[in-house]
Write a structure and sequence with these properties.
The chain has no helices and 13 strands. It has about 170 residues and is an all-beta fold. Strands 6-7-8-9-10-11 form a six-stranded mixed sheet, with no helix packed on it. It has a five-stranded mixed sheet with strand order 1-2-3-4-5, with no helix packed on it. Strands 12-13 form a two-stranded antiparallel ribbon. It starts with a strand and ends in a 5-residue tail after the last strand.
Length: about 170
């Protein structure tokens, strides 16, 4: 391979003169993309993989920030606990464990039987709750609102077993 400097673009070429990497004159980087529309574009003809690997640690992360602060959020992998974590404003907000539990607002399960645990303000009031279910309607008409469904399988089909509805009785 070789480097090619043309039209203000820095291009890394591989076998058969094929372009592998481009740093465009505006600073955008394209890997497998000859005209990157974003700051970093990765295109492949098959499966896309981006590996973030820590060389001497058991912790890898993708960090998000802006011009006002060095750190705003991250997606992290912890090898010791074998968990994925999502952080915002420096605090862990969501964790997925190696056995598939989804923990929201906490870092450990409430007990050994739960696979989804959501923690929030307590005691709750009319506006601050652990779970808020809202329909996507905007009319405010009757029979609109949120619903929670409990379901299962009858051997042939998925079925709803029970529902809890929070619906409006009328338009007012």
């Amino acid at each position: 391979g070789y480097l090619d400097w043309s039209s203000g673009n820095l291009i890394l070429r591989g076998a058969s003169n094929a372009e592998r990497l481009r740093i465009a004159s505006d600073g955008k980087i394209g890997i497998g993309d000859t005209n990157p529309a974003r700051n970093l574009v990765v295109k492949t003809s098959g499966q896309s993989d981006i590996l973030i690997e820590s060389g001497n640690s058991n912790y890898s992360q993708l960090i998000f920030g802006d011009s006002d602060a060095e750190f705003r959020g991250s997606v992290s992998y912890n090898h010791n606990g074998d968990t994925m974590q999502l952080y915002t404003a420096g605090s862990e907000r969501l964790r997925i464990t190696s056995s598939g539990e989804l923990l929201v607002g906490r870092t450990t399960k409430a007990n050994d039987q739960n696979t989804l645990v959501v923690s929030g303000p307590s005691p709750s009031d009319a506006y601050d709750n652990q779970i808020f279910l809202e329909g996507d309607e905007t009319t405010g008409s009757s029979n609109t609102g949120g619903a929670l469904t409990f379901g299962g399988h009858d051997g042939a089909n998925h079925r709803n077993w029970a529902n809890i509805y929070g619906m409006k009785e009328n338009g007012t």
